[in-house]
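Let us begin with a simple case.
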Amino acid sequence: MLNGDKTSVTPFRSKFDAVARDLLPGYFALVMATGIVSIALHIYNFLVFSDFLFYFNVLAFAGLWVISGYRIVFHSDRYLSDIRDHARGPGFFTVIAGTNTLASDFLIVGHNEPIAFILWILGFALWAIFQYGVFTALMLSDHKPTLDKAINGTWLVAVVSTQSLSVVAAQLTVYHSWMFLISIIMYFIGWFTYIMIMSLVNYRLLFFELKAESITGPYWINMGATAITTLAGALILLAAKTPAIISQFPINESIMPFIVGATFLIWAYGSWWIPWLLIIGIWKHTIGKVSPWRYDAQFWGAVFPMGMYTVSTYMFVRATNLGQLLIIPNFFIYFAIAGWIYEFVEFLYAMISGILKPDKNGLKKRDFIEQ
């Protein structure tokens, strides 16, 4: 019996250790994608599916924190190495965005304001730690790669993480009016960060060789970062119409027209990216011959923008009464659902095949852990 127990426990520990050691820093994109699709489903009254994703997301969030905690304790060298890595370091911003997306999920789907507020506080603390920690580590690094090896769509999660704080702050304004000003501040920080980082991403795409395998899910964040900025702007506009905000913030009347214009501008630019992302995806899987049937953990970074574009456009219509745009989220919701189901099925298959048919290292590293 004792020997039997030992044999059964050791492989599990070995697999868990392998997953924790090589965990993709951007894996919290799973929480981001699941959370926003859950909210989109709730808006469109797919309540059973929405609730399922909400509860799954809570489990995924807790599980990723357990694995991350283990990694920090037992593989701190790998963890710190990732923070100093120009290509992988920005993936840590998904921890912030994932925390705040779950906060929104708790508020809208779970109807639990206290937990949403606690998660926002946690998200703000993580934002301060990772935004300043990662950027400082990258700036002070002695070994800096060329732009084509350093910059990718993951860098734009810096924008998403900032705007996620703005989004939740605007949503919580009805309970804590002081959060309205924080929401506006984070909105403009995120907006300006997008301009800076997107310039580098465009430069990399236009003037360096683009290989099929380098076109990963996070490039969808070219659009996703604009979508969450649109959502933040829309929620600020809606919050600004409430009596409490009108009476407490005299700046409200003068700044709102500017936010309308800035939000519409970034929504339009983000929409421009969608055809290119579809074209480059087709090119990757046809001419580039990259199989679409192999699990890529980074594709969660593509599912999130699909869901976010749906929700942000819907809320922007509500904030501005531009009903002509409503046809877009009414269609895009199905695109987001299909994207989530596709990635979830691939995830399950990779996980089950990794457990049932492990290689000598325990798990199929390329399939399950990282690109």
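The second case is a distinct protein. As before, the sequence precedes its structure tokens.
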Amino acid sequence: MNLKINIKKQTPNFIISINIVTNTGIVGILGKSGSGKSLFLKCLAGLEPFDKGEIILDNKILYNDKINLPPQKRNIAYMFQNYGLFPNMTVKKNIQICAKVKNIDQIISMCRLNHLLNIYPNKLSGGEQQRVAIARILASKPKVILLDEPFSALDVGLRRNIEFDMIRLLSKFEGIVFIVSHDKDELYRFAQDIMIIDNGNIVETGKKDKIYKNPAHIQTAKLVGYDNIISAKLLNKNPNKRICIKSEDIKINESGKNAAVVIECIEDINNNIVYIQCNEEIIRVTDKKYYNKEQQVTFDLLNFIII
């Protein structure tokens, strides 16, 4: 399966410009709020118009300057954040209404919905509603599935409980999946490939291990957990470069090579969050120990990258 996307859309804040070719698998889309992630999905699904470009799925033109297929003819399934279930239909009818497969029983069993078939959506939990929405999508036999913040409407406990179900179901899907999330850890668990979007443009794409462990851009580093971006002159490196360090990769100890002063210490459940100042840089550190304001400390950088 092959999907070619080349679209442009003017928004009030920036121009969305996405040019990508992808094959079967799960692609995670990561970006800050308002970066154009969700708008990109809606353009792809045909729910939002864009200015120019083309979308080609398995050599079939979904959109170009002459063709603009409606959403229902694109073979692309979009799961809304509120799941979009029909309130006046039972679980079974919600699945049947979009079904293109001859037998939906296998999908119903796979989504663990056999005992809920005659129940209406308002009697379902958030996790159950999500499983119905996924079952309906799978029954429609799409080539592409678009998931826009699929867990945003769920509380933390429920999110953890149903995440396994979603990963299991999507791993059996033989098409292309795009999943948008603000949660870098969530995307790492789901996706094989990651696409970083900032101000409507692709900053970086690649296999998840490369993106997370060796990002090539500052925007990417910030999004995947490098919460300290400081001048490389701290290590007598090129001052035009930036050192990117995760909070957990900074160790406060008595024999550290770098001197600093504590400016704030915030108690947290697992590790305290300590803000230290070294020269002109404010650095965020996680540490089990509590430190007092204005306490003199030394620290070492255990792991970092320079961009």
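The first helix runs from residue 37 to 45. Residues 226-306 form a domain with the OB fold (Dihydrolipoamide Acetyltransferase, E2P) fold (CATH 2.40.50.140).
Keep these points in mind for the review questions at the end of the chapter.
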